[in-house]
Amino acid sequence: MVDGTFAFISDRALAELKKNGAFTYDGILWQRIDDSADDSIIHVKAPATGTEMWIDAESPLPLVLELRNNPFGIEWRVKTPPNLPKGEES
Q: Cβ(32)–Cβ(43) under 8 Å?
């Protein structure tokens, strides 16, 4: 059995990413690949698979905003409706 999540990462994984520039999740190493000083959205890549994620590090739950190059073909991108400002609840 695999313990994991879908569409977000744990707070512990996010803290490890911010501190070390990498984290291991479900046995997969993820490494930060951008050099941006802005930590609001963090871009990571799993070298073993080439999968990339963009994580919203400022939301109450570290949401995966985009997933690309997933070898299982599961890819997505979260879009905010144009009439819903960021941070406003629906």
A: yes
